[in-house]
Structure formats: C-alpha cells, structure tokens
Amino acid sequence: MNFGELEFNIEKILKEKGISKNQVCKHLDIPRSNFNRYCKNDFQRLDAGLICKLCYYLNIELGDLITYRRPEE
Fold first, then answer.
1. How far is CA 6 from CA 14, 29, 36, 37, 52, in A?
2. What backbone torsions phi and psi does residue 46 show, to the nearest 5 degrees?
3. pLDDT tens-digit map of 42-53
4. Cα–Cα distances in Å, from 22 out to 31, 32, 45, 68?
C-alpha cells in the first residue's frame, strides 16, 4: 500500500535565501554527495542530525523543510 512520500524543499529554500549548496555543505560539514541526495529527494532514510542542522542554519521550521505528499487515489 502506498502511504505517500516526504519531499524536501531544500533547493527552493536555498534559491529564496540566495545560499549555495557549497555554502551549506561547508558550514555544516556535510558531504556534498549526501546533501545532493536530499536535494533530489533521492533518500532511503532521514538523518535527524542533518535535518536539525538544516533547520537551524536556514532558520526555518521542519514543516518548511519537508512536505508530506499524500498518495493520489
């Protein structure tokens, strides 16, 4: 059964704030390859530490970062 999916809004937020992926990776000590997977919504598991870092660094709430998409019925 399909219960929906989570979608990261990272690229949209970075564009709105004028922040590059390189800046984020450098300041938060995140491997670029891992960060790119989140940006492309190509992840298997969520890293709570990374999510907290992103919310703090970007000064956003969890709901701004991640959107839950219900399955189309």
1. 18, 24, 16, 13, 16
2. -95, 140
3. 988 899 999 999
4. 10, 7, 22, 26
Average pLDDT over residues 21-37: 95
Each as own residue / partner, the long-range contacts of residues 40-46 (CB below 8 Å, 24 or more positions apart, any chain) are 41/5, 41/6, 41/7, 41/8, 46/6
Backbone phi and psi for residue 60, each to the nearest 5 degrees, phi listed first = -130, 170
Strand partners, 69: 5
- Hey, which CATH number is domain 5-69, 1.10.3720.10, 2.40.10.220, 3.30.70.330, 1.10.260.40? 1.10.260.40
Under 8 Å between Cβ of 48 and 18:
no
